[in-house]
Fold this sequence. Notes:
By secondary structure, this protein is an alpha/beta fold. It has 2 domains: 11-199 and 208-327, Rossmann fold, CATH 3.40.50.10440; 368-576, Serine Threonine Protein Phosphatase 5, Tetratricopeptide repeat. Helices cover 42% and strands 13% of the residues. It has helices at residues 12-22, 85-97, 111-126, 155-168, 173-185, 233-245, 273-289, 320-327, 370-386, 388-396, 403-420, 427-441, 444-461, 467-483, 501-512, 522-539, 563-576, and strands spanning 27-29, 35-38, 49-56, 73-79, 103-108, 131-136, 187-193, 212-215, 226-229, 260-267, 293-300, 310-317. Strand 10 (260-267), helix 7 and strand 11 form a beta-alpha-beta unit. Helix 16 packs antiparallel against helix 17 (563-576). The radius of gyration is 32 Å and the shape is elongated. The model is unreliable at 360-368, 492-497 and 546-557 (pLDDT under 50).
Amino acid sequence: xxxxxxxxxxxxxxxxxxxxxxxxxxxxxxxxxxxxxxxxxxxxxxxxxxxxxxxxxxxxxxxxxxxxxxxxxxxxxxxxxxxxxxxxxxxxxxxxxxxxxxxxxxxxxxxxxxxxxxxxxxxxxxxxxxxxxxxxxxxxxxxxxxxxxxxxxxxxxxxxxxxxxxxxxxxxxxxxxxxxxxxxxxxxxxxxxxxxxxxxxxxxxxxxxxxxxxxxxxxxxxxxxxxxxxxxxxxxxxxxxxxxxxxxxxxxxxxxxxxxxxxxxxxxxxxxxxxxxxxxxxxxxxxxxxxxxxxxxxxxxxxxxxxxxxxxxxxxxxxxxxxxxxxxxxxxxxxxxxxxxxxxxxxxxxxxxxxxxxxxxxxxxxxxxxxxxxxxxxxxxxxxxxxxxxxxxxxxxxxxxxxxxxxxxxxxxxxxxxxxxxxxxxxxxxxxxxxxxxxxxxxxxxxxxxxxxxxxxxxxxxxxxxxxxxxxxxxxxxxxxxxxxxxxxxxxxxxxxxxxxxxxxxxxxxxxxxxxxxxxxxxxxxxxxxxxxxxxxxxxxxxxxxxxxxxxxxxxxxxxxxxxxxxxxxxxxxxxx
Length: 577
């Protein structure tokens, strides 16, 4: 049975509503019932009240849409179970007694919801209450009509919004009923899932293979229309939109070039926000390519299926009036508070700031030739690329396992840079250019640290590049790195982790100080520097992490050499070869 973060399985629906109400001053629970109402019920006197609801497990639906400008109240059932007739009737009575000028029930097309809300409606009418019911069926999954009709899914939220804006503006029950029924007819939704979901305390209702996705699932894990191999996001979106608008599909939405739509990209519960953004961009591009204008786009979790890793797309054909109703203000917590305007992939970008031209100073002293610089850099890049897997493996022990990827990305960026232009021959310009490449392309903390080091070292080498100047440049680079560290961290302090490349650099710098002595043998000093760096890298296996990601884990003693320190030692070794 999948793990769930609940207090009790039996009380999870009640606990979820209680938590929502506790954190939202505009909501109240109806005593003795799983019903959430607006705090300002007196404000609905003389206006139409709107009630909706259904099973729990679809959060933020339905209680997240209670508020001024949306629903007056909702009735919740247990997880994936219709609410009771008694609770629906209690909600109707509560808003009727508050002075509502008619009540509209907005119900998703599921047998249990229709029966229970319908029975409560009949009993309320028998008591003299003016109450109507609109049943929403927006599912575009099934190509042949079923006896039960189309399922009600995420498009229902748009109906909540349209009805809520009309009610807030003082529209009559007849007008609201007519307009939401018209809007519901020009709306369609389709879901796509990568995983099942599971009711707390139960096993998943179905299984999907690792390489499978399912098209057209319901929001309770009901079977869809087709299983297929996992597609890239853009292809998956194309497949969904094609199915939704296919004229041979009995439940399709007719979409023609020039149409205006509201798009809802809905997280079914377990999809990452990163994936949701990718899907949203793909949906906008695909619709634009069809000549469709996306008047508004809503992206987020609107009607979920517990932890299902999936997405649904909703399209509603809109005119100016419907767009105004979608834009109308609401205090409902789950409705996105965003700037109103169309969605487009053609949005003008902010121009990049212009960089002031650099002053090219005359360099004195003898620097490495361009050919020599290329040869050394190629060797360094080859070394880092060959070490990618080793560095990743070392990093998994106390980091996020990407140190090898990060250094390989730096190596590839340097190779690409050298293919585009010859490296500068002057040492200061060479190091400064390398700093720019790493800061732009390497990423992570390592890219910034190397950028700091190379930028400061380049400054130190301007005007002088003899052997002692290289020792000074090494010291300048290390000092620049140290200035960026958290207080209390220093080379060899046994408290570094993500910054342990400094330990190798610091050890090498100590050895390079010999270059300041007259008659120093350059190769011997460099060999000693490399050996010192390698020994310092090996010594990091006994350190305890005081910074970086490793410092946050329970046992932050590294137990193996730090990958950053190992990478630095390898780079220095490649330079000497």
